[in-house]
């Protein structure tokens, strides 16, 4: 198991270290129950940023009041941080300026080699933010503080970008999320397309993990394997046939089938959607594509039994891919791979594809990036009104979450249906053009917003 590089929080009490700690680790915390082998306590947890992981260590504050004890405590705290981490986050309170204790800590930090970022917390307003540029900070021994608000989450993305850059330069880059988190994979498709054969082929030589892995919920029919240092859980492998059969009721996917499939997909982040090249794409496949898009899982389209295609030419793959895409517009974002479960052709290539579509679930735009993106989007295409008379005006565009990536578009209209849905599609396509979202669905919610100060 790979261990993420560490960042240590130090600083006086009440500067907001715990708030910053909580803010940084909250996103992964909701997924954390799935991460095996990580020790987690009040003072140490993993932080997820742009599909990469950094371990955050809170060293505790300076709680003493007697001058000589402060001195000792400062030395102890910084030494602990230096030993524990590859980068130090020295948190100061921008509302009160550098204090005597801040200077003490700064002096201590000057004597050591671990890179330090000075974080100016409590920058909840423009006035406080501006203080970071004042003379009192310009003249102090370390860098001027990077203004953030742990409470509002503002600036934390910039801080994480800075940490990432420093850690990369130091040769201890943040680790990829795929290296510390098991990826849950569901295999779906019509009966007889080769799901079981494919699974046998890819699991055949792998090392199964049979021991209990902490913080990982696993059902009896899940197969957990390790492949090139990464952990994969193929969910409900014994149910693969049963599941496919269950979905075929008459010739259409019945409501109950849809619900059960969605329920099953909740256990996975990635779906391998298998079909049989000799049979072509069926109505059932097209229904399933819709369910997959709705479910929020990332998808890889696996066109199987490629060995049975005769007279293949170098362009066969491209032609077939265009055909598949034409039939499955709901999964336009999913990569397509052509396999033969029987001969094993390209079966192993599924692993890097799973990694890719999994990590794209964690692609993250900072507030600034999302804002810039929206400004450019509007230049290309003004928001289009749907119902109503008033032209919609965009108030804000922000990413609210990952796994899968979720955005909120605030418009200044009382009714959300006043923005034409084509505009959401336009934004989604543009996001895909500019950022790494291949394989993952993107959610964009329209919200009627109050007038904000943002101008586009
Ligand atoms: P499932 O119902 O989707 O799990 O399908 P199976 O894995 O049971 O496969 C159905 C049939 O297709 C079996 O006879 C397999 O041997 C055959 N099959 C599966 N994959 C391939 C393939 O890539 N090429 C060929 N030629 N046959 C395959």
Short structural description:
By secondary structure, the chain is an alpha/beta fold. It has helices at 17-29, 67-84, 100-110, 126-131, 135-138, 156-169, 177-180, 195-203, 240-247, 255-265, 283-295, 316-327, 350-359, 367-380, 421-434; strands at residues 6-10, 44-49, 52-58, 87-93, 116-121, 146-147, 175-176, 183-189, 207-208, 223-227, 230-234, 270-276, 298-304, 336-338, 394-401, 406-411, 443-448.
How does this model look, in words?
Helices cover 35% and strands 20% of the residues. The protein has 456 residues and is of the alpha/beta class. It has 3 domains: 6-177, Rossmann fold (3-Layer(aba) Sandwich); 182-360, P-loop containing nucleotide triphosphate hydrolases (Rossmann fold); 367-448, GMP Synthetase, Chain A, domain 3 (2-Layer Sandwich). Strands 1, 2, 3, 4, 5, 6 and 7 form a 7-stranded mixed sheet that branches. β10 and β11 form a beta hairpin. α10 crosses α11 (283-295). The protein is globular and about 80 Å long. Residues 36-40 have low confidence and may be disordered. Bound molecules: guanosine-5'-diphosphate (GDP). Guanosine-5'-diphosphate (GDP) binds at residues 189, 191-197, 240-241, 244, 304-305, 307-308, 340-342.
Shape summary: globular
Low-confidence stretches: 36-40
Overall average pLDDT: 87
Strand proportion, as a percent range, falls in: 15-25%
* CATH class placement of the largest domain: Alpha Beta
**SS class:** alpha/beta
CATH homologous superfamily (4th level) name of the largest domain: P-loop containing nucleotide triphosphate hydrolases
Q: How many structural domains are formed by the residues?
A: 3
Q: Would you identify the CATH architecture of the largest domain?
A: 3-Layer(aba) Sandwich
How many β-strand runs? 17
Span between termini: 46 Å
Helix content: 25-40%
> For the CA atoms, what is the radius of gyration?
26 Å
Task: List ligands, each type once.
Answer: guanosine-5'-diphosphate
Q: How many individual helices? A: 15
Biggest beta-sheet profile: 7 strands, mixed
CATH topology term of the largest domain: Rossmann fold
């Amino acid at each position: 198991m790979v261990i993420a590089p560490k960042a240590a929080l130090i600083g006086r009490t009440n500067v907001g270290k715990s708030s910053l700690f909580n803010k940084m680790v909250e996103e992964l915390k909701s997924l954390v129950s799935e991460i095996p082998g990580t020790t987690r306590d009040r003072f140490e947890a993993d932080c997820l940023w742009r599909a990469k992981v950094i371990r955050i260590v809170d060293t505790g504050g300076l709680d003493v009041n007697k001058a000589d004890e402060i001195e000792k405590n400062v030395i102890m705290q910084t030494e602990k941080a230096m030993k524990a981490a590859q980068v130090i986050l020295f948190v100061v309170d921008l509302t009160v300026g550098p204090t005597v204790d801040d200077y003490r800590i700064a002096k201590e930090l000057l004597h050591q080699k671990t890179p330090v970022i000075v974080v100016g917390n409590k920058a909840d307003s423009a006035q406080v933010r501006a203080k970071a540029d004042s003379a009192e900070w310009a003249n102090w021994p370390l860098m001027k503080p990077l203004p953030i608000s742990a409470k509002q989450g503002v600036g934390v993305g910039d801080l994480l970008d800075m940490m990432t850059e420093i850690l990369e330069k130091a040769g201890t880059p943040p680790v990829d999320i795929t290296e510390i988190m098991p990826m849950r994979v569901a295999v779906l498709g019509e009966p007889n397309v080769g799901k079981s054969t494919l699974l046998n082929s890819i699991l055949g030589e792998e090392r199964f993990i049979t021991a209990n892995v902490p913080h990982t919920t696993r059902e009896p029919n899940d197969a957990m394997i390790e492949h090139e240092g990464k952990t994969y859980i193929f969910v409900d492998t014994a149910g693969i046939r049963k599941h496919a059969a269950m979905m075929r009721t008459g010739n259409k996917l019945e409501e109950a089938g849809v619900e059960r499939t969605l329920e099953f997909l909740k256990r996975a982040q990635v779906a391998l959607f298998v079909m049989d090249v000799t049979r072509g794409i069926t109505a059932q496949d097209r229904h399933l594509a819709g369910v997959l898009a709705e479910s929020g899982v990332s998808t890889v389209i696996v066109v199987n039994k490629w060995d049975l295609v005769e007279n293949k030419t170098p362009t066969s793959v491209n032609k077939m891919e265009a055909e598949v895409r034409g039939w499955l517009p709901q999964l336009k974002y999913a990569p397509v791979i052509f396999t033969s479960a029987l001969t094993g052709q390209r079966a192993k290539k599924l692993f890097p594809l799973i990694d890719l579509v999994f990590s794209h679930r964690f692609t993250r735009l900072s507030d600034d990036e999302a804002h810039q993106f929206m400004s450019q989007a509007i230049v290309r295409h003004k928001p289009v009104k749907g119902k109503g008379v008033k032209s919609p005006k965009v108030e804000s565009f922000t990413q609210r979450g990952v796994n899968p990536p979720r955005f909120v578009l605030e418009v200044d209209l009382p009714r959300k249906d006043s923005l034409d849905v084509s505009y959401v599609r336009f934004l989604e396509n543009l996001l895909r053009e500019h950022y790494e979202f291949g394989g993952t669905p993107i959610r964009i919610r329209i919200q009627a917003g109050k007038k904000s100060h943002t101008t586009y």
